[in-house]
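User: When convenient, might I ask for sequence and structure tokens for a protein?

AI:
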Amino acid sequence: MSVLFQQSRRIFTLTGLSLFLCTSMAQAQDTLTIAANPVPHAEILEFVKPQLAKQGVTLKIKVFTDYIQPGVQVNEKRLDGNYYLTQPYLNEFKKSHKNDLQVPLVKVHVEPFAGYSSKYKKLSDLPIGATIAIPNDPANSGRALILLAKQGLLKLKDMNNISATKKDIIENPKNLKFKELEAATLPRILGQVDLALINTNYAIEAKLNPLKDSLFIEDANSPYANLLVAREDNKNSPAFKKLAAALNSPEVKKFIQERYKGAVVPAF
């Protein structure tokens, strides 16, 4: 084998290796792994996945049923971002996680919070001393109490305090009792309480229709829009910009309106 041939082969091999490494790096940069709750978040991400693929972005969707781990894993850089948080929840999360790196990019949709009962058909039938189940995370517990106050069931010190707790109740004419439970469990214990305040994503999973099955529901002015969230170090990446644009596209707005029929509302 000639020296010239050996050198040519070495150059070819090194060039091929460089091309392989460059291609691999490009592919890594164009892959996003996003955490989401099953409904509607993961469904909406699945809808935009083919569109992103045409733009050179591979979207990987990791489904979670809780509100804690997705945020933790984004901070730990095990995930690129998430799509399930609201701004009030993100604010509370940042208070308890000092090294929080999460940055909201765009609002996508609102899931109107609602009150459900398997025992009563009208709110006026709710008895004295009724047991009310609400989420146990700070952002959603405050959201639940504000919604109950808007129904006239109690009075809070400050109706605009999204972090309100039971200690902020100043009037409770029906002597309501509260059970604070993990949000995902609330549909399963609906028959064990008189009323439950349930996040729409968990309600839909449990085959509850927020518009038909609830006794009351948030109005369209809810500040709890669900966000696409990145980290500080990747928020300006081309891949995230493409995902943000896709989630705020006319096609996604139409998909949300047609699939969820008012139970989930576009926020853009």
The chain has a mean pLDDT of 89. The chain has two domains: 3-111+224-266, 114-217. The CA atoms of residues 254 and 266 lie 9 Å apart.
